[in-house]
Design goal:
The complex is a heterodimer of chains A (263) and B (258).
Chain A lengths: L6 H8 L2 H33 L22 H6 L3 H15 L2 H12 L11 E2 L3 E2 H28 L3 H9 L4 H16 L1 H14 L11 H12 L3 H29 L6
Antiparallel strand pairs in A: 1-2
Helix pairs in contact in A: 2-4, 2-6, 2-10, 4-6, 5-6, 6-8, 6-9, 7-8, 9-11, 10-11
Chain B lengths: L5 E12 L4 E12 L3 E5 L6 H8 L7 E6 L2 E2 L4 E3 L5 E3 L2 H5 L2 E4 L11 H11 L5 H14 L15 H13 L5 E5 L7 H16 L3 E5 L3 H7 L2 E6 L2 E6 L1 H6 L4 H10 L1
Parallel strand pairs in B: 3-10, 3-11, 8-9, 9-10
Antiparallel strand pairs in B: 1-2, 1-4, 4-5, 6-7, 11-12
Helix pairs in contact in B: 3-4, 3-5, 5-6
Classes of the chains: A mainly alpha (263), B alpha/beta (258).
Chain lengths: 263, 258
């Protein structure tokens, strides 16, 4: 394998242009779907973590009618199972490697015995039985990260906003949807953009379960031509062409949404 | 000035923090009648704001009840005469009580017009055109029609508070609650907000106003409550409260603020 970068090598890589094009389409679809599902998962997790459900609230008072101040019953009275589940989820997904999660999803969850995906190929090159586990694993992972961003965003909104909304008769859900979330998402847009860019880059590891993304095109070219540098350079440029405009587009929306901040 | 019967009846209202160590409200009972302009005064930390915020349950009272327009809104379930259980929908009652805050709490991501039409459209299901027309009429009344397309940050404090008042009025409330509406304003802007409130009082709106503006209390209020340490210590007409204060705490308070 030669490590000299040469024009001839690039011409040889050009024979595999179709593979790279298909890889690009798959990477884009993979990231877009991950963002979509990951974001909804994040919203759900954030709202779960901020919920105020305490099903054992009645345990706060003992038999004589006094408020408990300590002990197991006191702890149980303050326990919020919904928030607990969401917290466990977020902590587990943030504390384990993405590669492990991906393989767990592909080899355990989408094992024939559990969820048997039909071997369907879309557009002639998207093999769903590999693509779908890729999206699921990436979305589960990015949902955990995004939920922390969304949660911080929601908590950063002044309580007076909710008080004003509720005093006007808006329900808790309407307050979230029309008052709190638009402001929370606006405030956290740079962090969300960062996460979106991360998803595009991290989607590269799905080639390990046979998703034919950009990285898989690199692998195929390497195997066929015994050259490494040039395909990698092509992949680098392609990833950059995806991530750079993404952050620019989000910066545009950020400016649009911050109209209320300017005098 | 007062016309009609009781609109809000507060009975034995208590609000405790730290399991009773702090008594923000200590057994407050009062009747607010239709057409009342009730001004609540007292030193800071006296429970005035807690009292006001309890009226629409922004603060959940520890004990006691608040009967608004015939319904006890502190009970999450009530039994009707024929034995059915009714679940309380607090949102339905809150929309009948307009609230104005010290820090305005306009929605910064929405224009003035959108601030005003959000609740009428989403809560009262008015159509957009009708809600906007109503909003513009209200804005015109407070001289801010030309700022309908502006964002809150582009307005002065006094303008923001006038918008906050008409935003609450857009829901056609039966009572308006004011929580120190002029305390966060520059002195030269206090007058414009008080003028709007006076106008509102003249039209017969039932109002509960927590304020440090003793001039307003005297001139516009028909009843004054004096609170200290979470207790309602004295109540009466402005003439009684300011002219012949009886409680020593009130005498002391007035000697400091007048």
């Amino acid at each position: 394998m030669s490590n000299l970068i040469t024009a001839e090598h690039f011409q040889m890589v050009a024979q595999y242009a179709d593979l790279f094009k298909q890889g690009m389409v798959i990477t884009i679809l993979l990231s877009a779907l991950t963002v979509l599902f990951g974001f909804f998962l994040a919203l759900m997790l954030a709202i779960m973590r901020l919920s105020n459900l305490r099903p054992f609230r009645f345990l706060a008072v003992d038999r004589e009618g006094h408020l408990r101040e300590q002990g197991f019953a006191f702890a149980l009275s303050r326990f919020n199972p919904v928030s607990f589940i969401a917290t466990v989820y977020v902590e587990v997904f943030r504390a384990t490697p993405m590669l492990v999660q991906l393989w767990l999803v592909y080899y355990l969850l989408f094992d024939k015995a559990v969820i048997d995906l039909p071997k369907v190929t879309v557009l002639g090159f998207i093999r769903l039985e590999r693509f779908i586990p890729g999206v699921v694993a990436l979305a589960l992972n990015s949902g955990a990260y995004l939920s922390e961003i969304v949660r911080a965003g929601i908590q950063s909104i002044d309580g007076g906003q909710t008080e004003a909304a509720r005093s006007l008769g808006l329900t808790q859900g309407q307050n979230m949807r029309y008052v709190v979330l638009p402001q929370a998402i606006k405030n956290t847009l740079p962090a969300i953009a960062n996460e979106f860019v991360t998803i595009i880059k991290e989607s590269a590891i799905t080639y390990t379960i046979g998703v034919q993304d950009i990285m898989s095109a690199v692998n195929a070219t390497k195997g066929a031509l015994y050259i490494m540098a040039e395909p990698l350079i092509v992949a680098t440029v392609m990833y950059f062409c995806l991530t750079f405009p993404t952050s620019k587009i989000i910066a545009y929306f950020e400016r649009r949404m911050s109209r209320g901040d300017r005098r | 000035m007062a016309t009609g019967g009781s609109l809000i009846r507060v009975i034995g209202l208590k609000k405790y923090y730290n399991r009773g160590a702090i008594k923000a409200l200590d057994d407050v009972s009062v009747d607010i009648n239709r057409g009342d302009v009730m001004v609540v005064i007292g030193p800071s930390g006296s429970g005035k704001s807690t009292f006001l915020r309890s009226l629409n349950l922004l603060e959940e009272p520890t004990e006691g009840s608040i009967v608004f327009d015939g319904v006890d809104i502190t009970k999450s379930r009530t039994k009707t005469e024929d034995g059915k259980t009714l679940k309380l929908n607090i949102d339905q009652h809150r929309q009948k009580m307009g609230m104005v805050f010290q820090h305005f709490n306009l929605f910064p991501h929405k224009t003035i017009l959108d601030n005003m039409t959000l609740a009428p459209i989403k809560v009262r299901h008015m159509d957009k055109a009708a809600a906007e027309e109503k909003a513009l009429t209200l804005l015109d009344r407070v001289g801010l029609k030309d700022r309908a397309g502006a964002y809150p940050i582009q307005l002065s404090g006094g303008q923001k508070q006038r918008v906050a008042i008409v935003r609450a009025l857009a829901m056609e409330p039966q009572v308006m609650l004011f929580d120190e509406p002029t305390s966060a304003l520059d002195p030269e802007m206090v007058g414009e907000v008080l003028d709007v409130m006076k106008e509102l009082a003249r039209e017969g709106m039932t109002m509960v106003v927590v304020t440090h503006e003793m001039g307003f209390a005297r001139e516009v209020g028909n009843r004054v409550l004096f609170m200290a340490d979470g207790k309602l210590l004295e109540q009466g007409s402005p003439d009684d409260i300011f002219g012949h204060p009886e409680n020593p705490r009130l005498q002391d308070f007035l000697s400091k603020v007048l």
